[in-house]
Amino acid sequence: MIAALTKAVAQLSDPRFLKVLLMGIAGAIAAFVLLWVVSGWAVAQIPWGSIPFIGEYLADFEGTADTVAVVTATGAVMGLSLFLFPAVSTAIISLFLDSVCEAVEEKHYPNLGPARPQGIVEAVIQALKFLGLVIAINIVVFPFYLILFFAFGFGAILYYIVNGYLIGREFYELVAVRRLTPDDMRSLYKNYKGRITLFGVVFVFLMNVPILNLVAPVLAAAAMVHFFETLPRRHEYGDGVTVAVRGDPS
């Protein structure tokens, strides 16, 4: 894993890396700005004085209540944005990661055959499925994060395990789907589930470090190519040329 990350960092200046990086940053920022604007507008529309049970207590302080609610909601949305940044940035950048994978393969694995092409519709569907899954799981698990954090101090551990599993599997599938059939991809994953989850944990940590989180998804994609190609049993599942032909839906 360290060797894979080192090679990925060394290639970060590749123009194809930089192009994907800039598109991913712009997309993530746009998504969060839209979220903040919509959330702020929605909170401002709530008639606090008319809320059942507590409305009568807020009626005399409606202006203050509105201000407090907007500030509180803004803080909550900002916190949720940081919380979900790994998922959102990964989903957006995943739309453009083929060029990163190609750049790594051309430089380090020139003997691989052509990868299975992935259409934009397939990439968008995959990205949306992943984003929806991560958000849904994190919302369900969020109360446990809080309970474990305040009661035992282990909330962060659960967060990294859950998201490490999700991020690790997502990047594995982003790379493996280019080279393996779905059955082979799942079979190889079962053999190295623990390693792939650990890979995800490392990159979830990097995705939560300010500034570094902007480049982490691109580094994760590049590092996963190295990680995937050097898995001990990778050779059992065919080479790039054979798999690309076998996996071609035509």
List keywords for this structure.
250 residues, mainly alpha, 11 helices, 76% helix, globular
Helix content: over 70%
Rg over alpha carbons: 21 Å
Can you tell me the residue ranges where pLDDT is under 50 for at least 5 consecutive residues? 240-250
**Mean pLDDT over the residues:** 75
Strand content: under 5%
Could you give the count of β-strands? 0
Query: How far apart are the termini?
Result: 36 Å
Number of domains: 1
Helix and strand element order: HHHHHHHHHHH
Largest sheet: none
What structural class do the secondary elements suggest?
A: mainly alpha
The coarse silhouette is globular
Helical segment count: 11
Description:
This protein has 250 residues and is mainly α. It has one domain (2-246). It contains 11 helices and no strands. It has helices spanning 2-10, 15-44, 55-58, 62-93, 97-108, 120-151, 155-176, 182-191, 193-207, 212-229, 240-246. Helix 7 (155-176) packs across helix 9 (193-207). The two termini are 36 Å apart. Residues 240-250 have low confidence and may be disordered.
Give a summary of the structure in a few sentences.
This protein has 250 residues and is mainly α.
Write the layout of secondary structure elements.
Blueprint: H1 2-10, H2 15-44, H3 55-58, H4 62-93, H5 97-108, H6 120-151, H7 155-176, H8 182-191, H9 193-207, H10 212-229, H11 240-246
Helix pairs in contact: 1-10, 2-4, 2-10, 4-6, 4-10, 5-10, 6-7, 7-9, 7-10, 9-10
